[in-house]
Amino acid sequence: FILTYSATLVMFIVSGRYRVPIQPFLFVGASYALVGFLRIFISKMSPQIIVWPCIFIALLVAVLLNPAHSPMQPESWLLHRARAFQHARKWEFAVKELQQAMLINPKNAQIQDNLAKCFANVGQLENAIAHYRNALTLDSKLVSAHVGIGKALVRIGTMNLAVEHFKIAVNISPNHDEALVCLGSYMAMQGDFQSAASYFQAALHVNPSRIDVRLLMAQLMIDTGNPEMAEAIYRKVRQRHPNNTEASAGLNALSL
Question: Model-level pTM greater than 0.85?
Answer without folding.
Answer: no
